[in-house]
From TrEMBL:
Pfam families documented for this protein: PepSY_TM_like_2 (PF16357)
Key words of the record: Membrane, Transmembrane, Transmembrane helix
Source organism, top-level taxon: Bacteria
Transmembrane segments: 25-47, 160-182, 194-212
The protein's name: PepSY-associated TM helix domain-containing protein
Residue runs in coiled coils: none
Lineage: Bacteria, Pseudomonadati, Pseudomonadota, Betaproteobacteria, Burkholderiales
Amino acid sequence: MNAPQQLSHASQQRRAFWLRHLHQWHWISAAMCLVAMMLFAATGITLNHAAQIEAHPAISSKTGKLPSALLDQVIVARNDDAAVLPDTVRDWLIQELGIDTTKQAPEWSPEEAYLALPRPGGDAWLRIELDSGALEYELTDRGWIAYLNDLHKGRNTGSVWNWFIDAFAAGCLIFCVTGLLLLKMHAASRSATWPLLGYGVVLPVLLIVIFMH
């Protein structure tokens, strides 16, 4: 085998190596991101048309009264300017009223403890009167579209979901970069590759320059 043939064979081997690995990472990232990508694409549409999508918030409320022993613990926590309600109080709220304060920091005042309890797709708050132990809870549910929209934005979703969004974004980058490299490797036999890619770059730039002021 002469030198040109050896170079050609080595080049083919390198091409086959990169094609195999790029295809592998491309389909793996696609499989891992598929469902989440569909969710984020769909909620991108609902967010873009939020003004046209009519919402019907459902508001529910609960009232109750803390046992005196638990109220004493709340007062002690207020005097100590505690960051959260005592564990026993939070456990009682979950067991008796189904209210999960999720270690939310209360706003202390001489008269009451107030907890803002925002959540995806809605809002809630809890107020505990420190003189009587009377409590009031209100929950606002804005529906499943608002819930999915908040997942898209990472609004009031907690650190675990935010980590997932970061991991999902990394997976999408892998999918896009491997796709671009595969386009480059196949471009010689697909003449429309670079014009279509250029169209995908130029169109949004033109829209920004012409229509956004």
